Amino acid sequence: MTDLDEYGRQAKAWLDDNAVDLPREPDLATARAFFARLYDAGYSGITWPSEYGGQGLSAAEERAFQQAARDVVLPVGVFGIGLGMCGPTLISIGTEEQKRRYVRPLLRGEEIWCQMFSEPGAGSDVASLQTRAVLDGDAWVVNGQKVWTSVARQADYGLLIARTNPDAVKHKGITMFIIDMHDPGVTVRPLRDMTGESHFNEIFFDDVRVAPDQVVGTVNEGWSAAVTTLLHERVSIGMGAARTERPASFEALSKAARDRDILTDPAVRDQLVDLYLQERAFDLFNARLTQEVKAGIFPGARGSIAKLLLADLTLSSADIASEILGPETTAYSGEGKIARALSWGPGMALGGGTNEIMRNIIGDRVLGLPREPQVDREIPFRDLKVGTQTREESK
Q1: DSSP 48
Q2: Which residues are catalytic?
Q3: How far apart are the first and last CA of the chain?
Q4: CA–CA distance, 327 with 311 (Å, rounded to integer)
Q5: What is the pLDDT of residue 333?
Q6: CATH code for the domain defined by 4-112
Q7: List of the chain residues with pLDDT < 50
Q8: Among 18, 60, 147, 368, which residue's Cβ finds the most Cβ atoms within 10 Å?
């Protein structure tokens, strides 16, 4: 049995020697080197199965490490999607060969992963996707486009869902594949967002050949595989945000109000109290999810609650910041961190599923309310007019 106190002391000592002086946004080579050291020290994939490259320890060791790292901002960055979404999907439904091939390099930071679901005509309604994969001899041939993909420019591999049987209904006939992002048929183009940066990318697939052993899950049953990834994504977004810096937090905005001598204004105080309550609700809910995950209880659809709470909190903090800072809210000098965070805010109500989709999921799968009517659920995809698809194009 592990001595948890000693485990925590060793983790703290290792972090003090290796992580405290890391830049907040290290270059890719520095981040890769750090994750390799983290893995070799036994602190990456602590609860992941040891037979696939994890440490095979318990939730208690994971909690001890998180406690040791509570004051350290680890450079997860480009590794976050692989660690929070793709890796867990492979562990859940990947083949034995896929787990043995991909999990260890992912945990060491040797290979970066992205997730490719959304399309120009299939955002919130992901099942309307039109990227096609056609079996041609000994390989699947992929053609189409994806969009809003994070870290695609740095990624080595990605999880893609494509339509493999247009004669099936919309939520069937979809298959998940592992894609080599360095394939010559894969073209990645950055998309600049409101922050002035390029967090997202669009991706084009031109006759990309994918071997059958790169199918994740079952052919034509990729929607259930995608749901597995999306559940991990929403939990990862919500729980990951609970551990990151918040430039427009209650603490930061209270200080800004104090510096401007408006903290005694009753209206400002009311707004700050509301923000504090939202932050506490979000943090406490995430603490509960974290405890459950560490205990081996996957929160499932309740991860959508964390995602919705985060989106609402982000938008509320933007409104309050604009009241306190006024024109300074839009300045990238001085309070530049807040300006950047507020520009990013609307994306939180879209990425990983819109707020409206989150509320539908919570109502349907958490509260047990009647489902929203879906008139296209039992119609073959070939006969639908969805997204950018026309009837002629679908034939």
Answers
A1: S
A2: 233
A3: 62
A4: 23
A5: 54
A6: 1.10.540.10
A7: 238, 241-243, 334-335, 390-395
A8: 147
